[in-house]
Amino acid sequence: MGLELKIDKCCCLFNLRDGSLSIGLTLLITSLLNFFANLIALIIHGSGGSVPHGFITGGIFGNFITMAGGSMESLLVGLLVINLASAIIHALLVYGVYGNRKDFVLIWLILFGLMLLFFLITVIVNIGMLISSTFGYTVVQLLILAVLIYWWLVVYCYRSG
Predict the structure, then answer these.
(1) CA distances from residue 36 to 40, 55, 57, 62 in whole angstroms, order as listed
(2) Which pTM was predicted?
(3) Domain ranges of the chain
(4) Which terminus of the chain is less hemmed in, N or C, by CB atoms within 10 Å?
(5) Residues 46, 100: Cα–Cα separation, whole Å
(6) Is 130 left (phi over 0), alpha (psi -120 to 50) or beta?
(7) Nearest to 143 by CA among 122, 123, 128
(8) How far apart are CA 9 and CA 154, in angstroms?
(9) In sequence order, what are the residues at sequence separation of 6 or more whose Cβ sits closer than 8 angstroms to the Cβ of residue 63?
(10) At 56, phi and psi to the nearest 5?
(11) Alpha-carbon 103 to chain mean position
């Protein structure tokens, strides 16, 4: 007798299919917006302009590149690759839910699960090394992680149901 997880609604409002589709679209749009923001930052930086640090949507990844002594170009190119890969992964979820292709949903569950694991590790390292400059930044990271784990569980229950 194993542990059985049962979520019937997404956000106490939507059925699991609609919730999973909304999650996929939200993550896809966010990844694409981050991609274009970082592309603009790369163009500005390449033309000699200065890019405000808050403009770059690198978060923890940006902190690690900076600590490793990486250049702004390597940070931005790395972020572009990550954002594009994320968009492709989230498009798999949207396609899987919309087309009722649960095999694509499974691929998303595995890949997004790995992304969550990486995010969890980086948050722990961030807390341990005191990379973040404020307590509030760490709290926001933990809240985002909690929401993303909940979304993963919603999609998992959709696929299982």
Answers:
(1) 6, 11, 10, 16
(2) 0.82
(3) 14-160
(4) N
(5) 43
(6) left
(7) 123
(8) 8
(9) 126, 131, 132
(10) -80, 125
(11) 21
Assigned token pair, 29: 């749009």
Distance, CA of 21 to CA of 101 (rounded, Å): 12
CA distance from start to end of the chain: 18
SS3 string, the chain, reads: CCCCCCCCEECCCEEHHHHHHHHHHHHHHHHHHHHHHHHHHHHHHHCCCCCCHHHCCCHHHHHHHHHCCCCHHHHHHHHHHHHHHHHHHHHHHHHHHHCCCHHHHHHHHHHHHHHHHHHHHHHHHHHHHCCCCCHHHHHHHHHHHHHHHHHHHHHHHHHHC
Provide block-wise average pLDDT over 10 residues at a time, the chain (161 residues).
68 85 95 88 75 55 56 78 93 95 95 92 74 68 91 92 81
- Tokens matching residue 88: 């492709």
